[in-house]
Write a structure and sequence with these properties.
Rossmann fold; 2 domains; five-stranded parallel β-sheet; 6 helices; 26% helix; 25% strand; globular; Toll/interleukin-1 receptor domain-containing protein; TIR_dom; Toll_tir_struct_dom_sf; receptor
């Protein structure tokens, strides 16, 4: 039974489904959609006095589009998976990846927007693809980009002259900075800049496994068939250059062998039925692990 606050309430253009750990990304996306003029519903808009599950069910059943944010946390969330299934049944599901994970089987054939590197840029290709899907479901015309008006001829020549002047100045400046021809400049003599503040190397001649081996301490933050649990230790051991074994005394985590791949500063699982992300650019390195896509573990290396 719906409460008085939901009866006659306006239909939302966009419903955002997400795991609680991804609230920051969901909020950023909600604000971006609202800036485009769309009405957005996410669970922060539940009015005091409303029954939580009834309010969500009403909004989910009436929203004109449903954006599901897939992450290591949401793929093991029964709430998110049920909301995605309900949206797919109505033909309004718009999935988006906010982290590199292996999607639940029933959603892998759906075209998915990639928001893994999105930080609010309205011109991001993944964000633009997601917005195109929303416009389609709302019956709105595709977005058009208007080219800038042509420059008047006098401004064209002024700009060209400025570019030539900058190029000439840059040429002579660079030549003036060159060392004499009889001075040998070796790589060791050059200043080192941008040095990472943490100790894990970004590359390893022995393979990816050596970058992530060790003991990690953290928590099981969600479990499709159990409860959350704090203070869980997992051990990552090397099986080969690009293959590791992940083991924990906590039986729900168990033991899993993982093949590895590298994407920027992240080491990921390469295939298989488990998801793994190790963030090398954090100090200490952080891990997100989803054995058999049944639970979500988050920890840091000791």
């Amino acid at each position: 039974m719906l409460t008085a606050q939901t009866i006659g309430a306006p239909v939302s253009d966009v419903f955002i489904s997400y795991a609680s750990a991804d609230r920051e990304q969901a909020g950023r996306l909600a604000h971006a959609f609202e800036a485009l003029g769309w009405s957005v519903w996410w669970d922060r808009k539940i009015i005091t006095g409303q029954v939580f599950d009834q309010a969500i069910e009403h909004e989910l059943d009436t929203a004109r589009s449903v954006v599901v944010l897939w992450s290591p946390y949401s793929i093991v969330s029964e709430w998110v998976r049920n909301e995605a299934a309900a949206a797919a049944a109505r033909g309004v599901l718009l999935p988006a990846l906010i982290a590199p994970v292996r999607l639940p089987l029933e959603f892998r054939r759906k075209q998915t927007a990639d928001l893994g590197n999105w930080r609010g840029d309205p011109q991001d290709h993944g964000f633009q693809a997601l917005c195109a899907g929303i416009r389609h479901l709302l019956g709105q015309p595709p977005a058009t980009s208007n080219p800038p008006p042509p420059w008047p001829p006098q401004l064209k020549w002024s700009a060209l002259g400025a570019l030539i002047l900058v190029a000439v100045i840059g040429f002579f400046t660079n030549n003036a900075r060159q060392p004499p021809t009889d001075t040998a400049v070796t790589p060791d003599a050059r200043p080192m800049t941008g040095m990472a503040s943490w100790t894990t190397p970004l590359t390893s001649p022995a393979g990816l496994a050596d970058l992530i081996v060790g003991t990690y301490s953290g928590d099981v933050i969600s479990d499709a068939h159990g409860s959350s649990r704090s203070g869980v230790l997992i051990t990552v051991t090397r099986l080969g250059p690009d293959r590791v074994r992940i083991h924990s005394d906590y039986t729900r985590v168990g033991t899993t062998d993982i093949a590895l791949q590298r994407v920027d500063q992240q080491v990921l699982a390469d295939g298989g039925d488990s998801s793994l992300i190790v963030y090398l650019d954090r100090q200490p390195p952080a891990i997100l692990f989803n054995p058999r896509l049944e639970l979500a573990y988050a920890g840091t290396r000791q």
